[in-house]
Design brief:
By secondary structure, the chain is an alpha/beta fold. The protein has two domains: 7-127 and 285-296, Rossmann fold; 131-282, Rossmann fold, CATH 3.40.50. It is built from twelve helices and nine strands. It has helices at residues 12-27, 52-63, 84-91, 105-115, 129-143, 160-172, 188-194, 204-208, 228-235, 242-247, 268-273, 275-296, and strands at 41-46, 67-72, 97-101, 119-121, 150-154, 175-179, 198-201, 213-216, 253-256. Strands 7-6-5-8-9 form a five-stranded parallel beta sheet. Helix 1 crosses helix 12 (275-296). The radius of gyration is 19 Å and the shape is globular. The termini are close together. The structure holds phosphoric acid mono(formamide)ester and norvaline. Residues 50-53, 123, 131, 257-259 line the site of phosphoric acid mono(formamide)ester (CP).
Length: 298
């Protein structure tokens, strides 16, 4: 039994196993031979909104033979203050696995420690591991290995998605350039811990120059709504648009984890010009998560 709690601690061999299996799950979608969750019920416990993650886990669990059970965290007693460790011990006696979207990374880790069932991080304030696994799979599918390539992350360089890219860079030997205003750059302590070939700059043109992949995420992550006004001001200009794409390699990919806020982190024309990649990236959440679900049982 395994948990996927963060990319920080995911060994490269497991990363590769998941990505390899993703290709099989994608190619053989809906084939009844892949039913590792037959007879199982998996809880999806979400404290934040979701379109892609909820859909892809609900569909993925069904396609693997299991039954998903969506629990909005505000509707269960957790929302009235029942401790995580008690919720975990109850759920661990009733369901076979848990997919959790919440705020504090510590809460997912505590749930995993007390529940005794496979636990998957479906986004916390610290990391979004399923997203970055799908992103890397999408890049590999379209352009081959990321090793030795240049990824430029533009925007809120201190968010969960940027953090997971940092851990991936250290493991996959690609160059990661984070272009963000000073206030939204990753903590130096985190970069030191991660190692790898990572640079941080406030110069987004320099970061995009010769890049193989331009990537962005929202300026206002869930839970940061109180800072929205300040973030919109400080992050203005940290946008993927036609002028920035021109600085990257001619065959560079543009990706966005979605949801996208056109006119902020990406402009309409660039999003639509790269829609095939961006929506395939979204679809790949389904395939990669089926591989993750299967891997947790091993
Ligand atoms: N990218 C992503 O995780 O989307 P949702 O918030 O819609 O799940
Ligand atoms: N950084 C964003 C990702 C959304 C999928 C957030 O946490 O809201």
């Amino acid at each position: 039994m395994k948990h996927l709690l963060k990319l920080e601690t995911l060994p490269r061999t497991d990363f590769e196993k998941i990505l390899g299996d993703t290709a099989v799950f994608k190619r053989e979608r809906n084939q009844p031979k892949h039913q590792p969750l037959a007879g199982q019920t998996w809880a999806l416990m979400f404290s934040k909104q979701s379109t892609r993650t909820r859909l892809s886990f609900e569909v993925g669990i069904r396609e693997l033979g299991g039954m998903p059970m969506f629990l909005s965290a505000v509707d269960i007693q957790l929302g009235r203050g029942e401790p995580i460790k008690d919720t975990a011990r109850v759920m661990g006696r009733m369901v076979h696995g848990a997919v959790i979207r919440t705020f504090a990374q510590h809460d997912v880790e505590e749930f995993a420690a007390y529940s005794g069932i496979p636990t998957i991080n479906a986004l916390t304030d610290d990391e979004h591991p399923c997203q970055i696994l799908a992103d890397i799979f999408t890049y590999q599918e379209k352009r081959g290995s990321l090793e030795g390539k240049i990824v430029a992350f533009v925007g809120d360089g201190a968010c969960n998605v940027a953090n997971s890219w940092i851990w991936a860079a250290a493991k996959f030997n690609f160059e990661l350039r984070i272009a963000a205003p000073k206030k939204f750059q990753p903590a130096p302590e985190l970069l030191k811990r991660a190692g790898g070939h990572i640079s941080v700059t406030s110069d987004l043109q320099a970061a995009a120059h010769g890049a193989d992949l331009l990537y962005t995420d929202v300026w206002v992550s869930m839970g940061k709504e109180a800072e929205a006004k300040e973030r919109m001001q400080i992050l203005t200009g940290y946008q993927i648009n036609g002028a920035l794409v021109k600085l990257a390699k001619p065959d560079a990919l543009v990706m966005h984890c979605l949801p996208a806020y056109r006119g902020n982190e990406i402009d309409e024309a660039t999003l639509e010009a790269h829609a095939d990649t961006i929506f395939e990236e979204a679809e790949n959440r389904l395939h990669v998560q089926k591989a993750i679900l299967n891997w947790t049982l091993t």
